[in-house]
Amino acid sequence: MTVKTIVPFGDPILRKMAKPVETPLSPKMLTLLDDMAETLYASDGRAGLAAPQVGILRRLVVMDCGTGLIELINPVITDRSGEQTGPEGCLSYPGFYGIVQRAERVTVTTLNREGQEVVLEAEGYLARCIQHETDHLNGILYIDHVREQWLYHEQTRQRFPLLDAIRQAGPSNR
Fold first, then answer.
1. How far apart are CA 96 and CA 12, in angstroms?
2. CB-based contact 144:154 (threshold 8 Å)
3. Which residues are annotated as catalytic?
4. 117 falls within a domain
């Protein structure tokens, strides 16, 4: 397995729509999932990683929100309910976070490695992670959802103007 380089904000690939993965998964896509997991676990402050964040425009996500590795292949959020507001950061923009509103509960239809459809129901932090990572597959970044005009530096808690981050990230796909 290989630790991949994470694409930073400002790279145009983060604003593009990822393409579906064909099934059955090719050995190349299975290796990519393994490499993404290795990259995720090698990163500080990590919860999830989408393929566009390693420069690959495919609809693949790996995440670990505290209960073990979850792989999402061609995920589609089919239901959202409730509301939660809290801090979010991103491996592509390390060291900063913003306050984001998301659904409290989601249902996502995805595939497993064998190409079988799986329905996952999530709430709380896991639901937040799923929404954040599936947004990456659609060229949407968490800064597009930030409720205030500020991001915050993780260590100093100092404010950083959201507009500066948006300029750095490139135009939104929303």
1. 20
2. no
3. 133
4. yes
